[in-house]
Amino acid sequence: MKSTFFFCLLLICCSSFQLVIPSQTGTYDVVVYGGTPGGVVAAVAAAREGARVLLIEPTKHLGGLNTSGIGTSESEHMIEETYSGLPLEFYERLGKAYGKNGPTFYFESHVAEKVFNDLVQEAKVKVVYEAFVKSVTKKGTAIQSISLTNGTNVAGKVFIDATYEGDLMARAKVSHTHGRESREQYGESLAGVRFIDTPIEAAPYDDSGKLLPGFVERTTLTEGKASDRVMNYNFRLMMSTNANRRPFPKPAAYKPERYILLTRLLKNHPETQLKDIIDLYSWTYPKGKFETNNKQKAVISLGHFGGNVDYPEADYARRDAIYQDHKAWTLGLMYYLANDPAVPEALRIETASYGLSADEFTDNENFPYYLYVREARRMIGAYVQTQKDILEERTKPDAICLASHWIDSHHVQRVAVSKTQFVNEGRIWEPITQPYEVSYRAITPKGSECTNLLVPVCVSASHVGFCSLRVESTWMQLGNSAGIAAALAVKQKKAVQAVNYNELKSLLEKKGVILSINHQVWNGTRDGTK
Fold first, then answer.
1. Which of 145, 144, 34, 43 is nearest to 370 (CA)?
2. Which CA distances in Å does 10 have to 4, 223, 318, 422?
């Protein structure tokens, strides 16, 4: 088996074998931890401002989820006109790669990776792969250096944490949280535990009356109250019906009993089709190629409920176990559908007509590098963006970009409501018809905690606020502004909180970043059901 993301991590952490040893570490102007789309853009933006930049990526590949199966800018639920600056350039480069005169907002993972690599190489950003942050050395409120799991130390003047998990932020002792606040904490009507979906007719108990794995009892939850659980995770498989597809492999940890809900469903509904179980997106991909996602209202799907409960604060070894468990769940589900005799023949034949796309993730057995971590930690920074900042108080005196995605929380947990029914809990799907401004303070820690760190991905927001910000296109906008702000802080020799905002605003506008909701008239409404 070829190494996966977390398998590589275990080699790094648990043995003396060093996969990557940078030729020199030195002191960098800006150190970006995390080669997610937001991290790549942050690194390139800082380098274009003349900063000496190091980008550290824990896997072998740049691009995060945009190179691990998410092939959309989410423009179907955003206002495209808010894309600006370097992120817009990224989509324009994608368009050029597909022979278009203009941006494209739907793309294949391997194409996105090439564009990210080109941007980094052109900007002369140094990249270190397969290394995780181990510890942070601070002097007062400033990070001096970070120690990596490959045995090296990296010093920097300003640091940017662009990971989905916020590990650099956490090791720098910056305040953070995870899960959902109560409705009362920030006065958010969409906050807390949410029972809004219709119960699903499927028994959440086994034949002996024991609650099935991944379920919780209704009596443990109260509507509107806080919960430390986060949205469910899943892999975004790239699938194909073409002749060169790779058949779904049988995972070593295959356990068909994990899919008992599906067995019961298919017994009662033999007419079930694959589209009833997982979401298949064709976007503008080549014929026969599909992006997949967890289907929100399915009895069972790609989302592995209960499998990520301790992920946000877990150590690397535990995260590896969670990654592998989600992988086994995912491949096991597809293998079950294509092979198990309990599956109706028509559905087995339909599923077997698909396989893993042969032209994606070619060094990882065509399996995505990244698990779709929809949310993990969130910083509690100088300003916390909440529901009111999206729907009511949409302007900010220190705006660094616009955001416009709907408030979107996938389900958090599966709740048994009777012996024969369960409900998926936690969904938010709130339309937005106008953009809103994001405060610079939402990516800066409190000055008393850290003065040379910016956090554009695990941004300072409530769960509800985060549910609008948590898409790659917006994280790229935040990363672009973070990179420019970091370079400016180095030039001004100031704490990130003390950067002259007027100068930052001027730089952002020169780079084509749209900062104000009054930039132009936003017409029309957005609707959709995905």
1. 34
2. 10, 40, 10, 37
Between 2-6, 100-104, 211-215, 354-358, the lowest mean confidence (pLDDT) is in 2-6
Q: How far apart are CA 436 and CA 483, in angstroms?
A: 21
Q: Is the whole-model pTM more than 0.85?
A: yes
To the nearest whole number, what is the mean pLDDT of the chain?
93
Full domain range(s) for residue 310? 238-356
User: What letters, b where the CB count within 10 A reaches 16 and e where it falls short, cover 100-115?
Assistant: eeebbbbbbbbbbbbb
Contact 136, 146 (CB under 8 A): yes
DSSP 138-202: EETTEEEEEEETTS-EEEEEEEEE-SSS-HHHHHTT--EE-SB--HHHHT-TT-S----SPPEES
Q: Is the separation of the CB atoms in 14 and 87 below 8 Å?
A: no
Residue 184 lies in a domain: no
Token pair for 310: 């301790």
Q: How far is C-alpha 434 from the geometric centre of its chain's CA atoms? A: 23
Q: How far apart are CA 364 and CA 412, in angstroms?
A: 29
Q: Looking at the domain assignment, is residue 161 inside a domain?
A: yes
- CATH number at 113 reads 3.50.50.60
User: Could you report the per-residue pLDDT of 17-69, keeping only the tens digit for each?
Assistant: 233 334 345 789 999 999 999 999 999 999 999 999 999 999 999 999 999 99
Of the residues 356, 376, 408, the one at which a domain ends: 356
Task: Determine, yes or no, domain membership for 174.
Answer: yes
pLDDT tens, position by position, 248-261 = 999 999 999 999 99
Out of 356, 388, 411, a domain closes at 356
Q: Can you say how many angstroms the Cα of residue 500 is from the centroid of all Cα atoms in its chain?
A: 31
The number of folded domains in the chain is: 2
Helix H or strand E encompassing 416 = strand 413-416
Tell whether 395 is covered by a domain: no
Beta bridge partners of 521: none
- Residues 149-181: pLDDT tens digits? 999 999 999 999 999 999 999 999 999 999 999
Residues 6+ apart with CB under 8 A from 218: 415, 416, 417
Contact 25, 153 (CB under 8 A): yes
